[in-house]
Description:
Elements: H1 2-13, H2 16-27, H3 29-37, H4 41-52, H5 59-82, H6 84-95, H7 97-109, H8 118-122, H9 125-132, H10 137-145, H11 149-156, H12 161-173, E1 176-177, H13 179-188, E2 202-203, H14 207-214, H15 219-232, H16 234-244, H17 255-264, H18 267-273, H19 279-287, H20 291-304, H21 309-328
Antiparallel strand pairs: 1-2
Amino acid sequence: MADSTEVKAKVQEMDGIKKAAIFMISIGPETSAQIMKQLPDSYIQKVSYEIANIDYVSPKEREAIVNEYLEMSQAREYILDGGIDYAKNLLNKALGTQRAKEVIDMLNQIQLRERPFNIARKADPQQLTNLLLGEQPQTVALILCYMQPDKAAQILINFPIEKQAEIAERIGTITNTSPSVIEKIEKVIESKFSTYVENDTENVGGVSTLVEILNQVGRSTEKAIVGELEQSQPELAEEIKASLFTFEDIVSLQKNDVQKVLRDVDHDDLVLALKGVSDDLREFIYENLSSRAVETLKEDMQYLGPARLSAVEEAQQNVVTVIRRLDELGEIYIMRGEQDAIIE
Length: 344
């Protein structure tokens, strides 16, 4: 019992970055990599540093941190669903009064709160579209940043194409927004959105948010928006194009399309690109090659030995470049959020 108390106290004294590092170590590299992709660069650097400097984590520490994450995640869902009182009631039943209070206190300490424009996230897309059509692009962009990517895409495609590009540019270039601006916009939208505003600047938008939205719209809409951005924001357009389809997304392609891609990909790029990927992804590639090609590929990968991460990422991006080129030529098809039009 004393050991358990000591571990609990030790975990409570850890800062959030170290807890995050231990949590990622606990859940394994593949899942951790997916989470890491969602973090800001500054956090990636801090968490990576902690992971690199952790030599040992006891099973009890690992268990305590994973349990804390699960409890915090559960508490957050309860708060978002029904508010703080609803969360306290359910947590008291699930965890007991003392532990429930500790979890709520931790949530308050890290200011885990309902995001602004929460009502917009729950509202009907058509109603939101009707409401937003008359708003300025910067207003629409800020609201879409807080919404689910698929719902934001449904709204974005209803704007005239020139407005779509302007809204997309705003989303892609937003870095933070002051509470006063958020508050004014919430009032303009007649209290249809959340009334809770961060005391500090809220990090929203950016290329990742825009890419998530564009991945949900149709190919024609995406091409039109990116085309406009190439004229007004060429660097942003290139960054978006590089992020719209990742090497791991190759599994979403049809079998015939994968085989077309592999025929066009440089062999050395493919050898490098497959270093460090999951077994499932590697097997997927093997399934779309001849047995002789697979044998050669495996031999070359073994002969290659360790490779620099930057070189692997460059090779993977070269493969993505081939995929996007073939997609633009109409030789393969990348699935999008909306159905493609049928031309008779």
